Amino acid sequence: MKTINKSNKSAVSPHIQKWEMINWKKIYAYVKKLRQRIFRAEQLGQKRKTRKLQRLMIRSKGNLLLSIKRVTQVNKGKETAGIDGQIALTSKDRLELYNLLKTYNIKYIRPRPVKRAYIPKKNGKMRPLGIPIIKDRVFQNIVKNALEPQWEAKFAPSSYGFRPKRSTQDALVNLFTKLSSRSTRKWIFEGDFKGCFDNLNHQYIMDCLTRFPARDAIQKWLKAGFVDNNSFHDTDAGTPQRSIVSPLLANIALHGMEEELGVSYYQDRDFHKLSRKSVGVVTYADDFVVVFKTKEEAMSMYEKLKPYLSKRGLTLAEDKTKVTHIEEGFDFLGFNLRQYQTNKGMKLLIKPSKASV
To answer: pLDDT higher for 263 or 14?
Structure first.
């Protein structure tokens, strides 16, 4: 039985009778193309066109199908239920979920509180996670596909955490370049935000999303609260970890460090290179490193970051924030970076940190 009606020019027919017969290749191509158009419109400063394309993405049946597939088949937490106990692991369940959600308008959704769960951290403490119900996860993925390409056009080149086609290794390559033997930047400010996901200022996030079509839905998710040990708790700050849209919202809130610190670049052919007098920044979600030429500059970073932190409702984790010389070495993203004296001069080596080993 055919799923795609040839006379229908849209990426997906509204009448789907069998999950296995969906033309996923066509849907992937359609959503990818629409994401690229949003990115390009934002890059060119076409604000009205960006919002128009975002509304199209939010209403797209192809985006809905792709989001259901990601939430129920691709993501690791597909077998983990929210407070309603519902999951969708069979084709029949997924088709029923699609037929239910295709009639919804995202403006009028009523998010449920997330289920609080805990996992152990390296330091022995517990990390709180928030598990939304399956419907909210699908809608969050829909919104993410509309919002992410817009902000990908804005994010700094030195930001790597939770971004498409960017990895830990890319961040280390950038840092290796900034600290290479030819560089005069030898002092490192290692930073870590204390309880970043739990303390982000909701109002600051909403101010960043002023004209976004699904802004109200995001505000509802932020204020939905959580259930811990059968007790409901309000959420006045932070974004729940494990939520699909949370990493993107955190990146949006943390955006702007380079501008705050006065980082500058110059154009060299097709590349943007760091200016010689500028400090260098590499960020990965709530972990970041700033490199300097002198110790005095590095020590002054505590004061320079105060305006940036206060706007976002954050503080620095004292036990993870320090100033180090490259010859002493430091750990970042599970790796140790240190410069050694060799017969051929100074050499920068990157190795797995002791804790990671």
So the answer is: 263
